[in-house]
User: Which sequence fits this backbone?
């Protein structure tokens, strides 16, 4: 299998990062992935005539690779689509067509689309077979980069859930909000507006930072995590979402005086009614065994929130400053496990997508016919 034909939807920051890594790591990936060479044959953009478009360095033949037609992308006989666009539509329709009509695998960083349509895409992939000419045995949907860029959260959580039962998770999933809260704590003389402007100047916040500071961005990421960790998504309206713009200078000063810190935290917990709490006499559900299962408390309720939360030094997210993203997961066998690192940016996000590509290559490559 000498060539893997790839396409990128979206030529913005993340799309360019995917292209750059594919070029920079071309030979290394080829050696590590059984001789298969990834070649980006098409990049879908919304406007070919845009005068201020920034193209990836080294793109030698933009006229041949760039297109504004999804049909032209599919005519290029691609094996995998890297989706680095924004919004739900027409992106979901494009990926749906890629899977159903062309047996193509998809790797996405689009949290808004995936929070709503991720389950549908995975179901379509599970019942779709690539064409006989494809070098791949199954259709794959990768979404590691939807939650915390290249920070490995999705795949470890999926692995945990084979053995462990997740009881609770708490995370800092918006690095912009975390940066703003850190700066306001370290420099109390600065105003909220001043710190937001600095975040924008540094590239941490968008021109319109509403999704970051309102909690909307973190909310979408929580929905994706709920599907992985608990196999469900509660009704969206039932989850309170409060942004960091709800905090006042007085609240921040009072927290600092008490040695506490505000973190913008997504939270989900299986709450067990008191009569169903395990006891030592409950056998497999007993308090003296780690092998507790949600089936021991069939009416356990998944309670979720997205809001600023005060944490003390004992909390695993207390020390996560700056643009750090982090997720703490409480399970029956492991207790609390925390993963943290950079959770945004061109290369962190693009690297998460490329890691999904490597997983796909290892897991779904069609076996060579016997000699």
Assistant:
């Amino acid at each position: 299998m000498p060539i893997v034909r790839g396409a990128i939807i979206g030529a913005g920051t993340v799309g360019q990062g995917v292209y750059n890594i594919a070029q920079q790591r071309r030979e290394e990936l080829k050696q590590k992935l059984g001789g298969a060479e990834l070649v980006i044959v098409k990049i879908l953009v919304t406007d070919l005539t845009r005068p201020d478009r920034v193209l990836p360095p080294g793109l030698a033949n933009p006229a041949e690779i760039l297109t504004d037609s999804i049909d032209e992308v599919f005519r290029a006989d691609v094996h995998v689509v890297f989706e680095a666009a924004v919004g739900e539509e027409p992106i979901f329709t494009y990926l749906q067509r890629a899977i159903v009509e062309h047996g193509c695998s998809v790797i996405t960083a689009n949290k808004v689309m995936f929070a709503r349509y991720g389950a549908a895409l995975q179901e379509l992939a599970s019942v779709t077979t690539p064409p006989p000419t494809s070098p791949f045995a199954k259709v794959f949907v990768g979404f590691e980069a939807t939650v915390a860029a290249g920070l490995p959260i999705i795949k470890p959580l999926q692995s945990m859930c084979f053995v462990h039962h997740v009881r609770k998770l708490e995370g800092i999933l918006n690095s912009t909000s975390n940066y703003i809260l850190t700066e306001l704590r370290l420099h109390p003389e600065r105003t909220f507006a001043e710190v937001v402007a600095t975040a924008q100047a540094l590239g941490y916040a968008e021109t319109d930072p509403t999704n970051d500071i309102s909690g909307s961005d973190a909310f979408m990421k929580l929905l994706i995590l709920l599907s992985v960790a608990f196999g469900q998504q509660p009704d969206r309206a039932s989850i309170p979402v409060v942004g960091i713009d709800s905090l006042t200078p007085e609240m921040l000063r009072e927290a600092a005086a008490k040695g506490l810190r505000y973190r913008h935290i997504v939270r989900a917990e299986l709450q067990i009614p008191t009569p169903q709490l395990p006891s030592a006499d409950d056998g497999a559900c007993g308090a003296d065994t780690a092998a507790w299962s949600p089936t021991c408390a069939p009416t356990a309720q998944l309670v979720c929130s997205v809001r600023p939360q005060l944490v003390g030094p004992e909390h695993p997210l207390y020390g996560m400053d700056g643009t750090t993203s982090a997720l703490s997961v409480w399970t029956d066998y492991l207790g609390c496990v925390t993963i943290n690192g950079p959770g945004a940016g061109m290369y962190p996000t693009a690297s998460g997508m490329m890691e999904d590509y490597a997983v796909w290559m290892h897991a779904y490559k069609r076996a060579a016919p016997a000699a």
Observations:
- The chain has two domains: 3-149+348-367, 153-274+297-343.
